Amino acid sequence: MDKEPSTRKGPEFCSLRYGLALIMHFSNFTMITQRVSLSIAIIAMVNGTQQPGLFNASTERPLAFTLNHSNRSIKEFNTGEASVYEWSPETQGIIFSSINYGIILTLIPSGYLAGIFGAKQMLGAGLLISSLLTLFTPLAADFGVILVIVIRTVQGMAQGMAWTGQFTIWAKWAPPLERSKLTSIAGSGAAFGSFIILCVGGLISQALGWPFIFYIFGSTGCVCCLLWFTVIYDDPLHHPCITAREKEHIVSSLAQQSSSPRRSVPIKAMVRCLPLWAIFTGFFSHFWLCTIIITYLPTYISSVLHVNIRDSGVLSSLPFIAASSCTILGGQLADFLLSRKLLRLITVRKLFSSLGLLLPSLCAVALPFVASSYITTIILLILIPGTSNLCDSGFIINTLDVAPRYASFLMGISRGFGLIAGIISSTATGFLISQDSVSGWRNVFFLAAAVNIFGLVFYLTFGQAEIQDWAKERTLTRL
What we know:
mainly alpha, globular
């Protein structure tokens, strides 16, 4: 009798929850394109100024001089008569990292507030603010680099609100046996967005000028906001268009994880929980290598394979279509294994975490030894983000298993660990390759592999998939 609700099938791909996954896919697509837009546009924005010897430390100017003078545009005209700026590699690094600082500032509080006040408004507001700031970026660049840094930081805060709000929604919309599938469909939007912006960003810059990269993807975000506020609801109980059958299926499958209003978070219990630290360590390791790939991939392809900027953008986009495909396929496979009871939940989580951390590490270690082979290098670069995204069915959604009531709050902390890893890895990568290009890239990939292996061992040792005692209904009366 008790098992009947969890095994009864509701509507599948024509259902409202899969429509929600597609809209969230579009939202993630929009946010990542807005985040990566500058990585493509900056090639044209600084073209002819600092691009030669991009990572030659001996040619970099002092930071004080850079910040004081980088707001002056050189009176040259690139494609579309867009301004070109004197931004040194050091200044560019500050601009790139500023969005991560903004995300970190809001990840934890936004996750907690989304669980109390509703994720629909918080995610929608974050997406709208990010889109408007994207539209304003070209004008801000003319006013000076300081304003660009401020805008990128605020944009990061807005995207931090949007990222964490998603898990509050899935805690109420995703049946346990469909979590991997639904979250992978939604999450694959980030990989697909990376593919699109890297693929067409250079073409847009050539045809219309680099400001139109921001105009196009900022406008796309505004359209997505209209769709979001119109269609999305915080939970299935209040959605006016959901069928009675689907509502019953979702509610009954989540009955054992029902949540009530809460005013406190068991911080002490969370700090002492090793399964949570296993998830945090996994995020740290995963984001370390992923940040290097998404930030430095065009540079690596250009410097190692010696291709032009346009071809570099196209080649840089290929790994992310593989990542998007692997995210969706991994989610389908994970839920298949669970629904057929072929593997236990914890086995599935650890299996996909192992594949997502070990396989890209092996590819990264092999890269320096095949640099002379164009085809092999491209294949390995495609495999790194593709296999890495298998983690989306592993520890990435593990907070929904161990503490579904606090999933959004814990997702904020998890992404905070990941962003810290991204900041450290970006800084370390820039330092290593500025010393010596050949040995620098080798050390970058070896270090990333070591971090991944450490995270994998820690997760395999301490990772769990059972709801923790402090996350159950009966423990909410205490801190």
